[in-house]
Design brief:
Order of helices and strands: HHHEHEHEEHEHHEE
Number of helices: 8
Largest sheet: 7 strands, mixed
Oligomer: single chain
Number of strands: 7
CATH class: Alpha Beta
CATH superfamily: Vaccinia Virus protein VP39
CATH architecture: 3-Layer(aba) Sandwich
Strand order of the largest sheet: 3-2-1-4-5-7-6
Shape: globular
Length: 217
C-alpha cells in the first residue's frame, strides 16, 4: 500500500506542472461536475478585504473573489498554473493581475497583511511547519486561515458510486477521513498556534469539509 501514496505524490506533481492544462477537465471528472460548487462553499467564511490564496491553480477562485470586490493575491509554486490563472483573469477583463510564483514556506509579504488566507484542496506543502509559520505571520491578529482539504460524494447514483470508489483507492474514505484530516491538517495547525474549527457543508449529494483557523490569543 505504500506505493499508492508515492504514486499520488508523483501524479499530483505532474498534474500541477507538466499536465496543468488538464486541471479543469480532471477536476470536473473526478467530482462529477461538482468541483466549482465545492470551491464556492468557502465564501461564507472569508472575512475582510485583503485576501491571499495559496495554490490558486487555474484561477477560478481568483475570479470569484475579485467579483466580490475583494483585493486578492494568488501565489503558486507552479509557473504553469500561474500562466493558466493569468489567462483566465485576462479573459475576464481584469486589468490588474496580482499573481506570484513562489513557495508557501517563504511568503514574500509583510507581517499582518491579510484578513484571510485561503487554500482549497492543497497538497502536502500546506501542513509544512514553515508554511504554517509563514501564514501565521502574514495574517492579521483577527484574521483566519481557511482550508478546504477534502470533499467526498455520498450520493447513490451509479456515477456517484464510481466517483466514491476512485476516492477510496487513495486510501481515504468517509469512515477514516476525520482521522486523516486531524493528522494531516488539524494537529499541525494547532502546533503552529492556531485554534481550529471545522464545518461540514452538504451540497449536491456530497460533503465538503472546511477548516477555519484563527490565531490563538
Amino acid at each position: 500500500m505504500r506505493l499508492i501514496p508515492r504514486f499520488m505524490r508523483f501524479f499530483f506533481y505532474h498534474f500541477y506542472h507538466s499536465f496543468a492544462w488538464s486541471y479543469d477537465f480532471v477536476a470536473a471528472v473526478v467530482s462529477i461536475g461538482r468541483w466549482n460548487d465545492w470551491i464556492r462553499t468557502i465564501f461564507p467564511f472569508v472575512q475582510g478585504t485583503e485576501i491571499l490564496e495559496i495554490g490558486p491553480g487555474p484561477g477560478y477562485l481568483q475570479c470569484l473573489l475579485r467579483n466580490q470586490g475583494l483585493s486578492v493575491i494568488g501565489l503558486d509554486e507552479s509557473m504553469q498554473m500561474i500562466h493558466l490563472a493569468k489567462n483566465r483573469l485576462e479573459r475576464a477583463d481584469y486589468k490588474t493581475i496580482n499573481l506570484a510564483c513562489g513557495l508557501a514556506q517563504t511568503l514574500p509579504f509583510p507581517d499582518a497583511k491579510f484578513d484571510s488566507v485561503i487554500s482549497t484542496f492543497p497538497s502536502e506543502y500546506i501542513s509544512d511547519s514553515k508554511t504554517l509559520s509563514e501564514i501565521h505571520r502574514v495574517l492579521r491578529d483577527d484574521g483566519h486561515f481557511i482550508v478546504l482539504p477534502v470533499a467526498w460524494i455520498v450520493g447513490r447514483k451509479l456515477m456517484d458510486r464510481a466517483a466514491a470508489w476512485l476516492f477510496q483507492i487513495t486510501g481515504e474514505t468517509p469512515k477514516n477521513i476525520f482521522e486523516i484530516v486531524t493528522e494531516k491538517f488539524i494537529r499541525p495547525l494547532e502546533q503552529a498556534g492556531f485554534k481550529v474549527e471545522n464545518r461540514q457543508i452538504e451540497i449536491k449529494s456530497s460533503i465538503v469539509l472546511i477548516l477555519i483557523a484563527g490565531k490563538e490569543h
